[in-house]
Amino acid sequence: QVHVVESGGGLVQAGGSLRLSCAPSGRTFRPYAAGWFRQIPGKEREFVGAIFWNGGTTFYGDSIKGRFAITIDNAKNTLYLQMSRLKPEDTGIYYCGVRTLDARNLFTGTNEASYDAWGQGTQVTVSS
């Protein structure tokens, strides 16, 4: 069983930066991919970005492109979401999803079904 723990959320002023962390654990293998999604009040859960664990290829949602970046520290087996130039509309709960090597369904990377292990979410609040 894979456990996913997110951290790094908090309160930041508009224009500021924040870095979220996502650490999958429980099995000694690297995931196939990982993705970040966010739940903004009043909206459906939105794809933020994703990364292939081997190779580090990334892709992002249009609303954050150019402001957010996903990286991996392989030594720590940890995923990061570096958020810059934050806006009040970025406020929400951010979730990390991990696609394990056991997953067999179609992987698109941009939908929640692509990931089979999730963290509890971390709150990000951007004040104006």
C-alpha termini separation: 40 Å
* Beta-strand fraction estimate: over 45%
Q: What is the typical, i.e. mean, pLDDT?
A: 93
Helical amount: under 10%
Order of helices and strands: EEEEEEEEEEE
Radius of gyration of CA atoms, rounded to a whole number:
14 Å
Counting helices, strands and paired strands, the structural category is mainly beta
Describe the global form: globular
- How many beta-strand runs? 11
Unreliable residue runs? none
The number of distinct helices, counting runs of at least 4 residues, comes to 0
The largest β sheet comes out as: 7 strands, mixed
Essential attributes:
single chain, about 130 residues, mainly beta, seven-stranded mixed β-sheet, four-stranded antiparallel β-sheet, 11 strands
What's the quick description here?
The protein is mostly beta strands. It contains no helices and eleven strands.
Explain what the structure shows.
Strand 7 (68-73) and strand 8 (78-83) form a beta hairpin. Helix content is 0%, strand content 48%. The chain is globular. It has strands spanning 3-7, 10-13, 18-25, 33-39, 46-52, 58-60, 68-73, 78-83, 92-99, 117-118, 122-127. It is mostly beta strands and 128 residues long.
